[in-house]
Amino acid sequence: QTRLEESGGGSTQAGGSLKLSCVASGYTYSMYCRAWFRQAPGKEREGVANIDSGGHATYTDSVRGRFTISQDNAENILYLQMNDLKPEDAAMYYCAIRPGWWVPPTWEPLKISDYEYWGQGTQVTVSS
Fold it and tell me: Of the candidates 76, 1, 79, 2, which has an alpha carbon nearest to the alpha carbon of residue 36?
């Protein structure tokens, strides 16, 4: 049974940094997309960044240059380094996996329905 568990959320002021982690267990897919989504109160869940098994990553415009997605394949851990945080980045952040897929050359909005496995989320709060 595949399981994802996020950690690293918390509170920070605008301009601060946080690093999220997502530990995956119970799956052995050789090709996949891993992604970070976020959902703010009253808003739809949106994709933020994704990375595939080959290490190719893309980002939505609002976070490009500030956030970095990375992974430790040996430990099955997905990361999201978030720098220069803004109040509009405040949300619940979720990691997700889409087995058997890859990241396109350029950013394409992520579809929630494409991702098969999800974590429970970790809260990020940013004060102005």
Answer: 79
CB count, 10 Å around CB of 14? 14
Residue with tokens 């799956």: 27
Distance CA 9, CA 88 (A): 15
Q: How far is Cα 69 from Cα 35, in angstroms, rounded to an integer?
A: 8
- Interatomic CA distance for residues 35 and 14, integer angstroms: 24
Q: 87-119: per-residue pLDDT in tens? A: 999 999 999 999 989 999 999 999 999 999 999
Max distance between CA atoms of the chain, in angstroms, equals 42
Residue 82: beta bridge partners? 18, 67
Q: Could you tell me the CA-to-CA distances from 5 to 42, 62, 81, 114, 117 in Å, in that order?
A: 24, 25, 16, 19, 11
Residue closest to 78 by CA, chosen among 51, 112, 39:
51
Contact residues for 38 (Cβ-Cβ < 8 A; gap 6+):
45, 46, 48, 89, 91, 92, 93, 94, 124
